[in-house]
Each structure stands twice: as structure tokens, then as C-alpha cells.
Design a protein that fits this description.
The protein has about 475 residues and is an alpha+beta fold. Helix content is about 40%, strand content about 20%. The protein folds into 3 domains: about 290 residues, no CATH class; about 110 residues, no CATH class; about 60 residues, Arc Repressor Mutant, subunit A (Orthogonal Bundle), CATH 1.10.10.410. It is built from 15 helices and 14 strands. A hairpin with a 4-residue loop joins strand 12 and strand 13. The longest helix is centred in the middle third of the chain and has 20 residues. The radius of gyration is 29 Å and the shape is elongated. Bound molecules: adenosine-5'-diphosphate, magnesium ion and zinc ion. One of its GO terms (molecular function) is asparaginyl-tRNA synthase (glutamine-hydrolyzing) activity.
């Protein structure tokens, strides 16, 4: 590789507070346009913002969970720019004194642990939304979103590949969701990501010129947009050109990034301290309380799953990426399930069925104890692992219990040796040519004989017994 990519992500997370950051308006999504507004969030002159303590708590909680230092002195600042969705003409944000700094999160890529630094987490207000519809020569503005609290989480330029970028996003999203501070929904815009991308010749110390890619509005696109941008920049350099510092837009239908504007600098925004809000001196004992109340986080839970349940790290990682999935797993274990068996069924059939219907595990029609009951039937030999697949799907679709399904559909495994022996004899007699070939060394044919008996029993023959009998009779 002649070039190395350098990536830093700026992530905006909408906080799950009930009310806005500087007024008491509701943050509920999808209401009638402009129905959740007041003098403060539509920017009337002469009104005063008051900080929502919950938003501050959420930002501190996130900082603590990502190994940040919580600033003993923090301030808001005005970021000045004009846009119709920003009626005040400035956004209240933080600049010189963000609430959290110097943190990190860890990701695992190709079995290697990588630590990605978090430069800062600051609080700010969201803007409204311009609506261009109806085809007239006008746009509409909905200010319901204006003043919804955001956290901006800025990473160090520590990310080196598109895979690392998406892993970082995944991990960050998992942490935010575990903390209950953001729902992490990229499609609805409650989690947004801008990617700063540059390339440099491998071995060079200095960073190359970066482009900032905006509008990455789905999880899948984090990786794609970064990948495209790296290739584009390498091509520019290879052709003798220079990468220019600019803001680019990701076009997901074309799968490319396009130049939007030259990159603005901080001084363009004329940041200055927000005079209407007092500085934040977060009480240390309050910060301590927030820290003590942190839930178990994804990494810790993954490590515990490996240790406590003896499942592979790969399983543990998948099972803990969502809190609700981890809880489903542990409920099934508590109901008596074998950890590895539960994990296999969850990662395989359960996830497949949920994905087919685009469902979250919270909407899973199956209870953890139902899976455990089915596993008991397999262990007792009542049903085979193969038949269990049918039972599982039926359980998922109908909500019935495994035992009921097995009884109704007559799926009980045939473990009567003499019954299977009879079928084996019949099949071998019927297929004497294949039997000859098998005995002559064509061992692949075993599968053929298994298939014949399974067909005759509708898959219900005890597979172990069948295998042993076939081998004995064909030897
Ligand atoms: P701005 O606020 O103008 O976007 P920042 O200095 O806050 O600029 O940096 C934003 C992001 O850009 C950070 O995530 C940082 O890690 C990343 N970054 C800075 N320099 C580079 C670079 N040369 N290549 C890639 N990313 C970079
Ligand atoms: Mg930026
Ligand atoms: Zn308001």
C-alpha cells in the first residue's frame, strides 16, 4: 500500500430528553410542524435560555462512559451563521470549554484492539428543518427540532480504514444506546456522522489535506462513503493534482461524494461566549453519582459473557452490541439454556427471522424461555437438531410452545433402533448399485443413503443412530 488513510469522525447525537435544551418544549418526533415551539426556540429577541439539567447529565454520562475528563469549568458559545432554519442567526454550542475532553473508545478490527481517541464532547442545540415540497418557489420551515439537545462527539484522527470507521460508529452507537442517551437511529437523523478523510504516503508523519464528507445518513454508508473518498483522493494525487480542503456531500444513490463548498474555518463563525448562559461548574459529587450509576457497558458485558458463559469472543461481541439482545440471551440462560446453544440459535435462526421482518429483538414474538424449552427437547432426544429448525420457525410464527408443535405435527424423533434398521435395510436393498460403489470406496455416498432414510421418515430419524446403522450395514 502506497497510501495510508487518516480519518476523524464528528458524530452528532440527539439526546433522549423529554424537553428541549434551553426551553420546556417537547422533543417528540413527528408532530404537526411548529407545534412544539416557544419564544426561546424560535429565537424571539429578549428571551433567555435556561439549560436543561438532564441534557447536561446525559453529556456527562456519555463522557464518563467514553473515558473522558469532565471539565470543572464549561461554557456555551455562539456560533454565528445565517440559515432559514436558524432564526436566531446563531447556534448555541460550545467552543473553548466543552463539557468533556480527552477520552477514548476501543474497537476490535481483525482481532486487533484499536483505541480511538475522543477529542471532545460538547453540547449544542439542533436547528429546525427546511422543507422543500409542493414545487412552488418557496420553502417551509419547521422549528420543532430547533433547540433539541445534541451532543457532538469529535474523534481524534486515529481511524485508519473504512472498516475502523464503521466499527467506531457501531461501538459508539452501542454505548449511547446502553446509556439511554440517544436512540442511535441514523435513518431518522438522531445519529449523524460527518467523516473527515485525508490520505498520506505510507510512512509520512504529517497529515494530508482533509475533506469533510457530510450527509452520511445510514449505517451502511459510513464505510462506503469513506472508502470512496479515500480512492478519490489517491486518484487526485496520482494524477498530479492536490486535494483541496472542502466540504463534500455523500450521494448515496450515485455512491460518490461531490464538492459542496470550500471548508469553513472556525473564525468564519465568529465564536464568542454565550452571554445569556452562566458557565457550568459541574458539582464533583454529582458527577460521582452519575459515574456510580453507569450501567454495564458493551465491552465489559462482552468480556463477562466470555468469562461467565464460556462462549467465543465473536459470539459475545455480537450478543452484546445491543442491550436488549444481551438481555434476551441472559434470560434464556436463566431459564436453563446452554450458553453456546442459545447463542447459536440466536445468531442464526432468530436473527434471520427478525431480519426478514425488519424487527428489533424488542418486538420478538418468541420468549427466551420458549427457546430453552425447545433446547430441552433436543437434549432429551425427542427431536433432532434438524427438526428443531422447523419447530423453531413454527414457534416464532405461531407463538406456540415447542412441545405443542412437536405433538401436533408428529415431529417426535424416531429413536427406535429396530425401526430405523428396517428402513436402512430397505433403502440398501433398493439401491444395491450405490451400496456396491460405497463398499468400493465411494464414501461420499453415505450422504445419499442418509438422505433416502430421512426422506422416508420426513427427517425424523435419529441422525446419530442412522449414521451408525448405515456404516455398519454398508461395511
Ligand atoms: P472542524 O470543526 O473545522 O471540522 P476540527 O479541528 O474540529 O475541525 O476537526 C474535525 C475532525 O477532523 C476531527 O474528528 C479530527 O480528528 C479530524 N481531522 C483533523 N485533521 C484531519 C486530517 N488531516 N485528516 C483526517 N481527519 C482529520
Ligand atoms: Mg467539522
Ligand atoms: Zn421552545
Amino acid at each position: 500500500m502506497k497510501y495510508e488513510a487518516v480519518i476523524g469522525l464528528e458524530v452528532h447525537a440527539q439526546m433522549l430528553t423529554d424537553t428541549k435544551v434551553f426551553c420546556g418544549c417537547s422533543t417528540k418526533f413527528g408532530s404537526e410542524p411548529n407545534s412544539q415551539t416557544c419564544e426561546v426556540c424560535i429565537g424571539m429577541p429578549g428571551v433567555l435560555p435556561v439549560l436543561n439539567k438532564k441534557a447536561l447529565e446525559f453529556a456527562i454520562r456519555t463522557g464518563l462512559a467514553t473515558n473522558c475528563t469532565i471539565s470543572s469549568y464549561s461554557r456555551f458559545a455562539r456560533k454565528n451563521y445565517f440559515y432559514p432554519d436558524l432564526p436566531k442567526g446563531y447556534q448555541i454550542s460550545q467552543y473553548e470549554h466543552p463539557i468533556c475532553e480527552h477520552g477514548f473508545i476501543e474497537i476490535v478490527v481483525d482481532g486487533e484492539v484499536r483505541r480511538i481517541g475522543i477529542t471532545r464532547i460538547h453540547m449544542e442545540e439542533d436547528a429546525g428543518k427546511n422543507i422543500h415540497e409542493g414545487g412552488g418557489h418557496y420553502s417551509l420551515v419547521d422549528l420543532n427540532r430547533a433547540g433539541v439537545p445534541l451532543m457532538e462527539i469529535v474523534s481524534e484522527p486515529d481511524i485508519r480504514s473504512p472498516r475502523e470507521a464503521s466499527e467506531y460508529m457501531r461501538k459508539l452507537r452501542a454505548v449511547l444506546r446502553y446509556l439511554g442517551v440517544c436512540d442511535g437511529n441514523m435513518e431518522q437523523g438522531s445519529l449523524r456522522c460527518d467523516a473527515n478523510v485525508s490520505v498520506r504516503p505510507t510512512g509520512q508523519k504529517e497529515f494530508g489535506t482533509r475533506a469533510e464528507v457530510k450527509n452520511i445518513n445510514s449505517f451502511r454508508f459510513v464505510e462506503k462513503a469513506v472508502e470512496y473518498e479515500i480512492k478519490r483522493q489517491i486518484k487526485v494525487i496520482e494524477e498530479g493534482g492536490k486535494v483541496i480542503q472542502e466540504t463534500r456531500l455523500w450521494d448515496s444513490t450515485k455512491g460518490i461524494t461531490e464538492s459542496m463548498r470550500s471548508k469553513e474555518e472556525a473564525h468564519d463563525y465568529r465564536y464568542f461566549p454565550e452571554p445569556d448562559l452562566v458557565p457550568i461548574i459541574a458539582d464533583r459529587s454529582w458527577v460521582g453519582e452519575i459515574k456510580a450509576a453507569l450501567p454495564e457497558l458493551p465491552d465489559a458485558r462482552r468480556d463477562r459473557f466470555v468469562k461467565e458463559y464460556g462462549i467465543p469472543e465473536y459470539d459475545a461481541d455480537l450478543l452484546t452490541s445491543e442491550k436488549a439482545v444481551a438481555e434476551w440471551f441472559e434470560d434464556a440462560i436463566r431459564a436453563g439454556g446452554q450458553p453456546k446453544a442459545v447463542s447459536n440459535w440466536m445468531m442464526g435462526d432468530l436473527m434471520r427471522l427478525l431480519n426478514e421482518e425488519n424487527k428489533f429483538i424488542e418486538e420478538c414474538p418468541l420468549k427466551p424461555s420458549q427457546l430453552t424449552e425447545m433446547l430441552k427437547l433436543i437434549n432429551k432426544g425427542t427431536i433432532s437438531g434438524k427438526i428443531a429448525k422447523t419447530v423453531f420457525e413454527e414457534m416464532y410464527r405461531s407463538g406456540k410452545n415447542a412441545e405443542e408443535i412437536v405433538r401436533e405435527k408428529g415431529l417426535v424423533q424416531i429413536s427406535d433402533e429396530s425401526a430405523i434398521e428396517k428402513l436402512v435395510d430397505e433403502v440398501i436393498a433398493r439401491h444395491s448399485k450405490e451400496a456396491e460403489r460405497f463398499r468400493g470406496g465411494d464414501e461420499k455416498l453415505l450422504g445419499f443413503f442418509v438422505g433416502q432414510v430421512m426422506k422416508a421418515t420426513k427427517g425424523k430419524a435419529n441422525p446419530q443412530m442412522l449414521n451408525e446403522l448405515l456404516k455398519k450395514k454398508l461395511s
